[in-house]
Structures are given as C-alpha cells and as structure tokens.
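Look over what follows to help learners.
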Amino acid sequence: MSLVELIARADERGLAAGGLACLDRCLPLLGEDDELLRPLWGSLADGSDWSGHLERARAACGTGGEAGASGAETLRLARSMLDAAPAERTAEALRPWADACSLASLRIHLLLDPAAEGAPDGAAPQAARAGGTEELPPLVAAELRRQIAVLELLAGHGKHGLRHALELSGEGRRVLRAVVSRRARGTVATGG
C-alpha cells in the first residue's frame, strides 16, 4: 500500500504518530534535545490531551541548529511541522497535518541527501508517496520506508505499535543528525 493510501486510511492515533514521527526525526535541524517531543508520544500512548505538551514544545523550541547550505529551507520546513500541529487530536484535524509533515520531512531529506546535490526535485517525494517508481536518493528512500513503517505499525498494532514507531524515529533522527553534522563540517572545511 502506498504512503498516500496509508495516510488516507489511518485513524487518529496513526495520523498523530505519523506526523509526530516525521517531526521527531527532524529535531536535529531545530537544535533540540531528543526528549522535546517525549511528552507528546506519552499522550498518544495514554490517550490524554496533547495540547498542553504541544504548547510547551513550541515554547521550548529554539531558533534552530546548523543545517549547512540548505539550512534556511530545512529549518523552515522542520519548524512548520511543529507550528502547524493541531491542538485538537481528531482525524479531521490531523490528516492534513500528517500529510504535510510527510511531504516536509521527505523534502528535508531530499535537500540534505548528498546523492541529490545539485537538482533537488520537489516532485520526486510526492510521486514516491503515491507509489511512483522514480529512483530516490538513499536518504529520501530510507525516510519514505520509515514513514510507511510507522503507519503500518499503528494500523496493525494500535497503541502497542507506538514503542517501535518511537524507536524508528530515534534511528532516523540519529541518521539525520549525522548528515547535518557532516554537512556542517564540510561547510567549515571549505570555508563556505
């Protein structure tokens, strides 16, 4: 099943987890502690209201870390995921947010993927989400697989899939942090 279909069929918890996982993986761009979103994950697990946790995360979120040459765009995209998160956790409110987070995260990964240097094509992630066969750079392909895995976990296991979804997000966050760090070192080394 394509990512677009999974988002269309996901329930409230799956949509919230899908969007939150995308944001979680992009935390290195915001220069934030890995624990910033932990209370939001906790509210998904226990079914409690997440609006207070969401406001605290927005207030605690700084101006961003170092993302190299594509920094302004990637930072804007990452911050937009947090800013646009709906306080009301209903499927109707979450579906457009989860969809936008999916696109933003794939775009971020495309902008940062060294294999995509020179010609980041914004249409490639959209086509891949719909099941397109275009060849994706490795970082983007891995992000697409993580997004699909999170939604499948929640569809198949409900709240019991949250723990593994959180682990997948942590893995993706570590990968993105390494990419951002490598790009920052390359920028410093070349003097640009």
Q: What stands out?
A: The first helix runs from residue 3 to 9. The two ends are 43 Å apart (CA to CA). The chain is about 70% helix and 0% strand. The chain has one domain: 3-190.
